[in-house]
Write a structure and sequence with these properties.
The complex is a heterodimer of chains A (297) and B (342). The two termini of chain A are 24 Å apart. Chain A contains ten helices and no strands. Chain B has 14 helices and no strands. Chain B folds into two domains: 73 residues, no CATH class; 247 residues, MetI-like fold (Orthogonal Bundle). The two termini of chain B are 19 Å apart. In chain B, helix 7 crosses helix 9. Classes of the chains: A mainly alpha (297), B mainly alpha (342).
Chain lengths: 297, 342
């Protein structure tokens, strides 16, 4: 029996709800999404639930292997590093540094990029052409080189690397917002609301943004996996988080000298980075798949 | 084709203009004296500094300062490295070839393996091989390159002992500097140990190239897969099927050629990404290239080196970009001529 017209009023899901509906279909995407949520929760609560402090030294237990090996100790589940710091606690707090900060970085650059991008989409002529070329130049400089230059200007340190990565990510968002806004502005429904007397900002706010938000989110997941890798890479190179901080890249750099005696100090942070990047990429992949499905239907 | 070339050339000039402005303004942004950042003369006497200030037209307006900087650049003068007090140009000429060698071999390897595997995945669309390849690709571009490099050294150089872990060639071999590209220099040299040296250099190249090529290769896999799927969806493929061509004929004669063109268009965009990966890999494998030199120079606060490195590395990327554009235009008639009658 057809149940098309049970309710009087018709309910149109917002673009975001439609995206979610298509997004949750493939199981592998949901696994990635749960890992992503798990990492977010871990990043928020890590400071309260870690068994030890991330910088506390247990001098009796230096370079203890993980608990499943014969020399391991169950009170240090993932072993300790060369200064007797608990690996599990450090990895958990690293989640709030590497992963949590990458979310903040992406959010900030998303906001700035969207503002610049939509302003530039509204301008035409030589100004927008120059901006376009400028963005192309910036986008073709390797991201790490750009980040290194910005760190050289600001000086090393975690906070400065974050600013550097924000600035590296902004052009991508400007680019995608600009193209998406221009594309939407060419459509008829924008013309309709323009005929109703809406000014450009009103059209942006009420007509265009709800329709391009999913593209921005999908770009944001791409940017986030790049941000995690960049934060870790700069930490690894010693330009980002200082050594005692449990940032995953800095932990890797710390473990390098003991690679052959204590391989877990290198395996574990690397796996943590890999895990979080894969979780982010799975979410992004699911998002793009959902967008494609919606376009085709 | 003429218009296409002119457009590329004008784009190149515009890009270089922006790039030099960027690098010129960096000398103001870096900490310390602007003139010293620009020239790298940290130990100069006041008289020498005054002469330099005159040379760079410091008393004139900012525009003429920029132009005098440009003219120095055109004469190949990028100042002196603050760390080693050698001219930046010589430093770069000794290091850039190693980077060119590493990145171009890695790019070729990544394309050589990535594109066919992507086609293979597209042919088995939504079957087991496709899913398997997608899963591997996902891991491939998610893996942090510094971690991958360390694992590669641990497994292949230390535990198995198959390949050397650092440097470009064993120190036993003495290779004359001709082009700077190690492999070509070895072939040009008339040493009696030429082939041993060539083998040794190749063995040194294998691990870094694999580490650099892995992530771009997985991206090419995905690009090739998408391109192939798009091509297989077009009307001319349906027409070919209707004419009764076999599947292999369709793939080899029609689909593959058109899909390769689509992938090549995107190779240029991936190259900047590949250079980023190569910079970190050079650091891990002590590869004597420009990437590891740049990272070293930031530890030493060598601002002149950073400016020079930015210009040279970005120019290299743009040139590769433009070469790939031309290859694309040569392969695809639709890109070089304006469409008529569409």
């Amino acid at each position: 029996m057809a149940r098309d017209k049970v309710y009087q009023e018709e309910d149109f899901p917002t673009p975001l709800m439609q995206l979610w509906h298509n997004f949750k279909q493939p199981p592998v995407v949901m696994i990635g999404f749960s890992c992503f949520i798990f990492l977010i929760i871990l990043a928020v609560v890590a400071n309260f639930i870690t068994p030890y402090s991330a910088v506390e030294n247990h001098l009796d237990y230096l370079l203890l292997p993980p608990a499943w090996s014969n020399e391991g100790n169950i009170s240090f589940l993932l072993g300790t590093d060369n200064l007797g710091r608990d690996m599990l606690s450090r990895l958990m707090q690293g989640a709030s540094l590497t992963f949590g900060l990458s979310i903040i970085v992406v959010a900030v650059s998303l906001v700035i990029g969207v503002i610049i991008g939509s302003l530039s989409a509204l301008t035409t002529g030589i100004k927008s052409s120059i901006l376009n070329h400028f963005l192309d130049v910036i986008l073709s400089i390797p991201s790490l080189l750009l980040a290194i230059i910005i760190v050289a200007i600001l000086g090393p340190g975690l906070e400065n690397t974050l600013w550097a990565i924000i600035m590296v990510l902004i052009p991508q968002f400007v680019h995608i917002t600009r193209n998406a806004v221009k594309e939407e502005f060419a459509k008829d429904y924008v013309l309709a609301s323009r005929l109703d007397g809406a000014n450009s900002f009103r059209i942006l706010r009420y007509s265009v943004f709800p329709n391009i938000i999913e593209k921005l989110i999908s770009q944001a997941t791409l940017a986030q996996s790049a941000a995690i890798l960049d934060i870790a890479a700069l930490g690894f190179l010693g330009l980002g988080a200082p050594l005692p901080m449990p940032e995953w890249g800095a932990m890797l750099a710390n473990g390098i000298d003991m690679f052959y005696i204590a391989p877990w100090t290198v395996y574990l942070p690397g796996l943590a980075i890999l895990f979080s990047v894969i979780a982010t990429n799975l979410v992004g992949e699911g998002m793009r798949h959902a967008l494609k499905v919606r376009k085709e239907s | 084709m003429l218009i296409f070339t002119l457009r590329r050339i004008s784009l190149f000039f515009f890009t270089m203009l922006l790039l030099t402005i960027l690098s010129f303004s960096l000398s103001f942004l870096f900490p310390g004296e602007q003139l010293i950042n620009l020239t790298g003369q940290i130990n100069a006497t006041p008289e020498h500094l005054a002469a330099l200030a005159h040379q760079y037209q410091q008393q004139a307006s900012i525009v003429s300062q920029y132009f005098s900087y440009l003219s120095h650049l055109f004469q190949g003068d990028m100042g002196y490295s603050m760390a080693s007090q050698l001219p930046i140009t010589t430093e770069i000429f000794h290091r850039l070839p190693a980077t060119i060698e590493l990145t171009s071999v890695a790019l070729l390897i990544a394309m050589f393996f990535g594109i066919p595997i992507g086609f293979f995945a597209a042919i088995y669309h939504r079957k087991v091989p496709d899913n398997l390849i997608l899963a591997i690709a996902m891991i491939g571009y998610s893996i942090p390159v510094f971690w991958l490099g360390m694992l590669a050294i641990l497994i292949f150089s230390i535990q198995l002992g198959w390949l050397p872990s650092a440097g470009q060639i064993s120190l036993l071999f003495e290779i004359e500097y001709v082009t700077g590209l190690q492999l070509i220099d070895i072939l040009l040299s008339d040493s009696e140990y030429k082939w041993q040296a060539f083998q040794d250099a190749t063995r040194h190249l294998i691990l870094p190239v694999i580490v650099v090529a892995l992530a771009p290769a997985t991206i090419f896999m995905r690009l090739a897969r998408t391109a192939m799927l798009e091509v297989l969806d077009t009307h001319y493929i349906t027409a070919a099927q209707a004419k009764g061509l076999t599947f292999a004929q369709i793939i080899y004669r029609h689909a593959m050629r058109n899909a390769v063109i689509k992938v090549i268009r995107d190779v240029g965009l991936q190259f900047a990404n590949l250079v980023t990966i190569a910079m970190i890999t050079e650091m891990i494998f002590s590869w004597p290239g420009i990437g590891s030199w740049l990272i070293e120079s930031i530890y030493q606060r060598d601002y002149t080196a950073i400016q020079g490195g930015l210009i040279v590395l970005s120019t290299f990327i743009f040139i590769v970009h433009i070469i790939i554009d031309f290859v694309y235009a040569a392969l695809n008639p639709l890109a070089r001529e304006p469409n008529h009658g569409t």
